[in-house]
Amino acid sequence: MKSAANYDRPIYSRIMTEPPHDSRPPGATKRDYDRTLGVVECFTVITEQCPSGAVRRVAEAALEAVKGGGRGVLREQAHYVLMAIRGWRGERSAQVHRSLSEFIGATKDDPGESG
User: Distances from the Cα of 24 to the Cαs of 42, 58, 85, 97, in angstroms?
Assistant: First the structure.
């Protein structure tokens, strides 16, 4: 049976005192989320960890495009995937978003990349 004392407080004060939900997968440390991921690694993380089926399909299509088009399609596919993950939240999504944004910014003026 739950403590009656907890239910005597308004819901907002119970919510504000509860610890925040940890969105990290089991065994992952904070350090895992500070590292910059590679583009293909970002796509793979999305296919394995993003809760949205539509976003996972975009990342899967991006992986297939990279298999067929190689390095020349990385920037374009990174952009598509970055736009698709806008609604994904949490530490892993922030890491993926940051990594893809850095890649797109770094390749913006690179003549070796398409786009």
Answer: 15, 22, 17, 16
Question: CA 33 to CA 28: how far, in whole Å?
Answer: 8
> What digits encode the pLDDT tens for the residues 36-72?
999 999 999 999 999 999 999 999 999 999 999 998 9
Residue in the structure block whose two tokens are 């997968």:
25
Q: Which two tokens stand for residue 67?
A: 């298999």
DSSP assignment, residue 1? -
Q: Are 6 and 14 in contact (CB under 8 A)?
A: yes
pLDDT digits (tens, 9 = 90+) for 71-94: 899 999 999 999 999 999 999 999
